[in-house]
What we know:
The chain is of the alpha+beta class. The chain has helices at 17-24, 43-54, 104-119, 134-142; strands at 8-10, 63-69, 72-83, 88-95, 124-130, 146-157, 160-170.
Amino acid sequence: MSELPTVSLRACTADDLDVLFSIAADLDTWEERNPSAPAPLTRERFDARLAAATDGNTSQDTVNFVVDVDGSAVGSVELFGHDSFARHAEVGISLVPEARGRGLGTAAIIQLVEFGFSRCNLRRIHLQAIASNTGAIRAYEKAGFVIEGRQRQHAWVRGAYEDIVLMGILRSETFVH
Ligand SMILES: CC(C)(COP(=O)(O)OP(=O)(O)OC[C@H]1O[C@@H](n2cnc3c(N)ncnc32)[C@H](O)[C@@H]1OP(=O)(O)O)[C@@H](O)C(=O)NCCC(=O)NCCS
């Protein structure tokens, strides 16, 4: 693998909110595998969602990081849906369009996977991607995920049904023991 750029994962600050809102409100990268309907997102709704998360009204086990490059937020990455018995969780990531295709996503995923295994004591991390999202699937593969299955025509994506690709990585497949 060619050398990856430097990114850091850190907590969100008030200065990051404009960038995170721009990602959340970007319908072009709307995640159709999400069961809620695509709809424009107002800043008020985004702020209310954030306040609810901060107040602890959403799942306590979601771990959210801002992806930082040279002091600026370029996206966010998260672990959610923790299963404390089977010790697995799902990963999600989104970068601003200008930051994509430069290895930053792969670098951030690798760091989150390490955090999940070595800090959260997970033994498996998984995700779902739309089959046509070849960039995301490739970035996850570069971070060590393998394709585990496929849900045929499971998503309605901008005018066509698409398969959902299921991917996962086991702790035993990494250097974390
Ligand atoms: C998915 C995402 C996080 C990937 O991060 P990224 O920084 O763009 O990806 P990287 O540059 O690290 O790696 C992408 C890899 O896929 C390849 N790739 C990118 N677009 C591709 C395409 N359309 N077809 C084939 N390969 C593609 C790149 O060439 C690179 O592989 P390489 O290093 O072997 O050349 C980012 O693109 C993003 O935020 N997309 C929008 C949100 C999203 O789709 N999230 C994931 C939902 S599952």
